[in-house]
Amino acid sequence: LNSPNDLIADSRGNVWFTDPEYGCLQFPSDSCPAGGDAGNALYQLHPPTGHLERMPVSFTRPNGLAFSPDESLLYVVDSG
């Protein structure tokens, strides 16, 4: 992970969060991914199992998150 940012939990207890490259761009370190793989991804964490899944979508700079009232849609701000 680069610099996990905004997160939101759904009613089933899953945690969704963005992982933009902002932290690694501002504060490069050995913990940043090598080879320019900045990530810029959306993840879902299932706390009971610890399973972390990178969602198969592409973003320039994912940031804010919000669900529709019925949670059928997850909105992701792409601030890139």
Main traits of this protein?
single chain; 80 residues; mainly beta; four-stranded antiparallel beta sheet; two-stranded antiparallel ribbon
Describe the protein in words.
The chain has 80 residues and is mainly beta. 6% of the residues lie in helices and 36% in strands. It contains 1 helix and 6 strands, in the order ββαββββ. A 4-stranded antiparallel β-sheet has the order 1-2-3-4, with no helix packed on it. Strands 5-6 form a two-stranded antiparallel sheet. β5 and β6 form a beta hairpin. The model has no long low-confidence stretch (mean pLDDT 86).
Described by the principal axes of the CA atoms, the overall outline is globular
Q: Considering DSSP H and I runs of 4 or more, what fraction of the residues is helical?
A: under 10%
Q: Ranges with pLDDT <50 over ≥5 residues? A: none
Mean pLDDT figure:
86
The helix/strand order is EEHEEEE
Count of helices? 1
Q: What's the number of extended β-strand segments? A: 6
Calculate Rg over CA atoms. Answer: 13 Å
- Portion in strands: 35-45%
> Oligomer, anyone?
single chain
Briefly, what is this?
With 80 residues, the chain is mostly beta strands.
Question: Could you outline the blueprint of secondary structure elements for this entry?
Answer:
Blueprint lengths: L6 E3 L5 E5 L2 H5 L14 E6 L4 E4 L7 E6 L6 E5 L2
Antiparallel strand pairs: 1-2, 2-3, 3-4, 5-6
